[in-house]
Structures are given as structure tokens and as C-alpha cells.
Amino acid sequence: MEEFERLLKKQQGFFRSGRTFPTEFRLEQLDRLSAMLRAWEPHLLAALNEDLGKSMFEGYAAELGLLHGEIGEARRHLKSWARPKRVPGPMHQFPSAGRRYPEPKGAVLIVSPWNYPVQLTLAPLISAMAAGCCAVLSLPPDAPAVSRVLGDMLREGFPEEYIAARMGTIENNTALFALPFDHIFFTGSPRVGKIVMAAAAQNLTPVTLELGGKSPCIVEESADLALAARRIVWGKCLNAGQTCVAPDYLLVQESVKAELAARIAEEVRRQYPGGMLKSPDYPRIVSDRHFARLCGLMEGQRIMAGGGTDPDTRRMELTLLDAPDFQSPVMREEIFGPLLPVIGWRRLEDALAMAAALPKPLAFYLFTGNRKKARYIFSRFSFGGGCLNDTVVHLTSPKLPFGGIGNSGMGSCHGKAGFETFTHWKSVLERSDKLDIPVRYPPYGEKFSLIKKIMR
């Protein structure tokens, strides 16, 4: 605890020095991080393969490549984002003008998960650096190789009074959560998110929670089923389903349920021609504990396709489960693995009612040929973010804010939204000293009717 208190005080002192405020400093640091990512790329990709079995392609496409996009977006727009914004003053304060001044929040804590340990550590860091903050990073112990490489990279690149990394053990995180950081950015499960929020409340520390939940994928009979199968398989098998925005379950119109299941099985054979359990392109489950949990979720379920497992390599085939009971464990908790319940429906209203009966999801996916209907559904159903006729890829755009609602989180990140997360906007009303209209000063006399007209 004392070590972390000293670290936070060092970062608070560095922040108060004003070094991080100029946009030139922030741009220089983003350039430095970009260069470090390129220099350390082979080590990071090797560590992702060691921890999670990710291929070089997936490691780059789903982690490092997205970070270069985030840095590029911040570099292009930072001067505009960080510029004070002018707004008109109210009529009853004439003459006046308002200004909003962006202020870095200060020293922040970023807690990252094991499933995308590079991207979900450095993407919020990029936003914090762009906003002008100092940061302590809590690295995931369940991805030890990646955490070790990230720690070495960040120690080489930045002084710890600006950017510091520590291993996010339970003991370390408990101590960190108790400190008065200026913001906490947490990515993980709703269960731990509640712990983070309760601890942050003791210091009135604002939080951003990127959580998870059961993200539905609805498929209508008007959808292109071949395309839907291809994109569902890709989105569900990315990182072996260990993705917070992976399709958690399918709600499929009864008339095409059997056909979609057959096309998904065919698509698995096409994408993994040598079999999923032996494919170098298919990641593995992170630990024996998670592997055993997933095997337990399959027990007692009707398997439509897949079902194969290899405990030695911790690989598990994409497994379609036929209409599990909504009270079964596989429908009561986030799956976070390659199991995919397939549930039929006859009326779209029934599908939406089934999805709405569960806590608000982080993601929502809809496959349909009717865009008018899709826009109506997107405007009415509550979720964090999603896609029409695709899965997962909405999080690749730095121009789309990413975040949850309710049980799936609060706050947002990516691009300008990430900058806003780590920024406090100070509001200032600038009054003229040349003219002072005396309406607001006593004695009020007959001024009541006049103030009612002015302040309508």
C-alpha cells in the first residue's frame, strides 16, 4: 500500500508541474508509444501466442492494428479536441459569452483484462495520454507473458511518474482501488465492476466500467444466411469466444433455424479445414479453470454441431446448443467461450422480448434484409453498441464510441469519446465590463414582469 501511495504522489506531482498540459507534449508521447509498438511488435505477438494461442494475424488485427488506428485518430484530431469551445451566453446575461475549457483529470488508474491484454491496456492509455493525464496500469496476471512484455516496454519508454505499470493481482488491485485516483477505467466482469465502483465511491472517484453480458444475435429469414453464418462464425471464434462483444446466443427465425445451423457447421469446416482443435489459426481457452467451466456449461445440453474438446491444448470446437432452457447456467451467465445457444422464434416481437428479459447487453447484432425494420429495432432495443449484418467489428472504428449500459457498463472509450472520458470540461461565463444592465439588482419594484419576459 505504501509503495502505491508513493507512486500516486509522484504522478500527482508530475501532473501538477503542468508538463502534460501542452498538446505538443501529448503528441510527442503518442508518437513515442507508436514507435514502441512497432519496435516491440514481435515480442507482443509472441506473448499473445504464448498466453492465448493467438496467431500473428489475429494478434495484429484484433490488438496491435487497432491501437495504431487509435493513435492515428488522436494525432489527427487532438488539437481540435483540446481547444476551448465557445458557446453563446444567455439573453438575460447580455452581453456575455460562454467558454468550455478542457482540463486533464489528473492521475488515473487503468485496469485491463486478460482476453485482449494488449489492446484493452493500451487503448484507454492512448486516450488518457491524449487528454493529458498520468496513468498507472494494472496488468492482467492471467496473461503473464503479455503483462511481462508490456511492463518492460512501458518502463523503457516512459518515466513512472508519467506512466507506470504494475501486476494486477487481487492484493495489488485492492490497494490501488482504495487510493484517490482522479479516474478509474476498468475492463472486466460485472461482478468485479461492482467491487471497483464500491471502492471508488469511498474517494468519490469517477469510473468507467467496460463490462460484458449476454449479447444477442438475431437472424431473420430475410437475411443472407451464407453471409450471416460466415460472420457469426468469425465473430464467435475470435479469441475462441473469449471476447466481451462476442455473440453470446442466437435468436433465429424458426423457418431458417435448421438451415443456418447447417451453414454455420459448413462455415466452420471452411474456415478451419484441418479441424478447429488442430488449427494454428484458432486460439485456446486461457486456463484449465475456464476450460472446465465451459465443459460444465455443455452438460445436459442438446448439441447441434461441434462438441469436440482437447483438454491438453485447452481447445474447444464451436458448439451449437439447441434451445437451452433460459434458467440453465449457459443462459444465466456470460459464456465467454465457443458455445453458442441457438433459440428459435416465430414473431420478431418474441425474439426481442426474450432478449429484453435479460440484463442490458454490451452488444447487439441483427441480420436482416430489411434496413427500415433494423433501424426501428436499433432505436428501441437497449444495448451498448452493435452491428447490422455483422458481428464484433463496430469496436474497430475509433469514430464510434464504445461502451455499455446498465449491467454491461458505464462510460465509453475510443477516439474522441476516450479523450472525453479522461477530460473535465470547465465552464466559464465571460461577462463584459463595459456594460452592466441593472435588472438583476434590488430594489426590484416593477421588474418582475420584465424578468419573466427576458427569461422565457
Summed up:
43% of the residues lie in helices and 19% in strands. The chain has helices at 2-16, 23-39, 41-52, 56-81, 119-131, 144-157, 170-177, 190-201, 225-237, 254-271, 288-298, 329-332, 348-356, 371-380, 415-421, 448-454; strands at residues 85-88, 96-104, 107-111, 134-139, 163-167, 183-187, 207-210, 216-219, 249-253, 303-305, 309-310, 315-316, 319-322, 339-345, 363-367, 385-388, 409-410, 423-431.
Please characterize this protein's 3D structure.
With 456 residues, the protein is α/β, with parallel strands linked by helices. The chain is built from 16 helices and 18 strands. A seven-stranded mixed sheet has the order 10-13-14-9-8-15-16, with helices on both faces. Helix 2 runs antiparallel to helix 4, helix 5 packs across helix 15 and helix 9 packs across helix 10. The longest helix has 26 residues. The chain is globular and about 80 Å long. The mean pLDDT is 96.
